[in-house]
Write a structure and sequence with these properties.
Elements lengths: L1 H13 L1 H29 L4 H11 L3 H14 L2 H18 L1 H5 L3 H4 L6 H41 L4 H6 L4 H18 L1 H13 L4 H24 L6 H10 L4 E7 L3 E6 L13 H8 L2 H22 L5
Antiparallel strand pairs: 1-2
Helix pairs in contact: 1-8, 2-5, 2-8, 4-10, 5-8, 5-11, 8-10, 10-14, 11-12, 11-15
């Protein structure tokens, strides 16, 4: 366990620009965006008449409606963090085994008392746990700072931020669900993660090309062959990947919830395979499904291939 933790620390320090600097930069963008909006409002409305009217209008709304809107807004507020996290993990895994071979540092790392299995495990756990957790912590810190700034503005115009939005927004519940969705998506995405590590282990150069081109070529050939046989476009790899993405346990989009209007949703609600409402139960439904079982089989095959290639990486 100590060796695994040490390897994960190594992964963090070697990729701290992606793991740490990226979410901090996004947090700064959030804060600057709010400050610019406030400064612009003050510049054009130095008596705060428009702002006062807007806040008083919000304060006059039914508490239940205000609570729901604030809660759904809190669930959706991590959108930029979520997108950036996806890119960071994608390119981190794509280079996780390739970079060692490219700069020949693999000879040094393989000389250390850590097995290839432990090395691959540390890289996978860094993508599944370390990166999402750091992004989430920076997101929560950003939201706390934004809440403090918004509270100060509300106090200036003579309203109570505690009753207006801080106490009504269920912020801690929303933040907890965002973290749960990040961790659930790490499990749901294991087939993709395994494929990226397999590509990283064998690609001679430009791993992005090897990661994207084979699935695209296979799907295009599949569509073409099916069309020649039936003159129709049937399900193909593009459809499988699209449905897998749409059923993600990540909070990715919005949906019209019955009886409560629009709100945040898990994945993209264009399929009815799973319920897309943002709940822990719906996240677990995905992780204990036969789709997840098939995904774990694919992951095992990819990881076994990556491990085999890692063993032989210094033979040539």
């Amino acid at each position: 366990m100590k060796r695994l933790l040490a390897l994960m620390k190594r992964e963090f320090w070697e990729n701290k620009g992606a793991f740490r600097t990226t979410p901090i930069a996004i947090g700064i963008i959030y804060v600057l965006g709010l400050l610019m909006a406030v400064i612009t409002t003050v510049y054009f409305d130095n008596e705060f008449h428009t702002l006062k009217d807007a806040i008083r209008f919000i304060a006059e709304q039914d508490e239940g409606i205000r609570t729901r809107i604030l809660y759904e807004g809190a669930l959706s507020s991590a959108g930029l963090f979520t997108v950036a996290l996806g890119f960071v993990v994608f390119f981190y895994l794509l280079g996780s085994l390739y970079d060692d071979r490219k700069d020949r540092s693999i000879l040094f790392w393989k000389s250390l008392p850590a097995s290839d299995t432990l090395t691959l495990t540390s890289k996978m756990l860094s993508a599944m746990v370390t990166a999402p957790l750091i992004f989430w912590l920076v997101f929560v810190a950003t939201m706390i700072l934004l809440t403090m700034i918004a509270s100060a503005i509300v106090l200036v115009v003579g309203e109570n931020p505690l009753t207006l939005f801080v106490g009504a927004g269920n912020l801690f519940k929303a933040w907890g669900l965002i973290l749960a969705s990040y961790l659930a998506n790490s499990v749901w995405s294991l087939p993709l993660y395994g494929w990226l590590m397999l590509v990283s282990a064998f690609a001679p150069r430009i791993p992005l090309l090897f990661a994207v081109l084979p699935p695209v070529v296979f799907a295009v050939l599949q569509i073409w062959i099916d069309f020649l046989k039936t003159f129709t476009f049937k399900d193909n790899l593009f459809g499988v990947i699209g449905e897998w993405f749409a059923n993600s346990p990540l909070i990715l989009s919005g949906d019209a919830h019955e009886g409560s209007g629009p709100g945040a949703a898990l994945g993209i609600p264009i399929t009815d395979t799973f319920d897309h409402a943002v709940t822990i139960g719906n996240m677990l439904d995905r992780l204990f499904s036969y789709q997840m079982f098939i995904g774990l089989v694919i992951t095992s095959i990819c990881m076994a291939g990556a491990l085999y290639l890692r063993h032989r990486a210094t033979d040539n």
